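Structure (tokenized):
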């Protein structure tokens, strides 16, 4: 039973990491392409897209928030650097930080939704979209980070149990 739980969480982790890698790669490619084209248009033709700045902000936020969950699943968070090889301290910090991320994310998510609803009536200056779009990456990233921390906690519990 323990081995099955470990294999399942490892399989879920692998699929989620592949998906987030694709999302991060697409966001980075879109951001670099958009900014490159914006520079070419501005300096060669004296023109540009007024909406490019708003889209760049959304892409940067998506990179940051999805990247946080991605790093958490990879184990690239602060507990790794603080422990310097002390396995027991690492386990305790991993549990503590994991619970803090889950708790903090569950507090942040309703605030993000409330902020999105407050900005829903305001349009972006250059795009016919509500300004709440800028907060969508925060909501998505928070959900992903909470899910990633939860998955790591569950997989660690399954690995230690037995």
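Design, position by position:
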């Amino acid at each position: 039973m323990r081995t099955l739980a470990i294999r399942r969480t490892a399989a879920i982790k692998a699929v989620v990491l592949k998906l987030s890698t694709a999302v991060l790669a697409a966001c980075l490619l879109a951001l670099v392409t958009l900014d490159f084209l914006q520079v070419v248009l501005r300096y060669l033709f004296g023109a540009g897209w007024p909406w490019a700045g708003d889209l760049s902000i959304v892409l940067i936020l998506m990179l940051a928030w999805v990247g946080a969950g991605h790093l958490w699943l990879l184990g690239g968070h602060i507990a790794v650097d603080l422990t310097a090889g002390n396995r027991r301290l690492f386990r305790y910090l991993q549990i503590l930080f994991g619970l803090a991320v889950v708790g903090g994310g569950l507090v942040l998510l309703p605030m993000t939704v409330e902020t999105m609803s407050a900005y829903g009536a305001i349009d972006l200056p250059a795009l016919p979209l509500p300004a709440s779009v800028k907060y969508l990456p925060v909501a998505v990233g928070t959900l992903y980070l909470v899910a990633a921390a939860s998955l790591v906690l569950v997989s660690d519990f399954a690995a230690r149990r037995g």
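Reviewer-requested clarification: The two ends are 9 Å apart (CA to CA). The CA atoms of residues 22 and 28 lie 10 Å apart.
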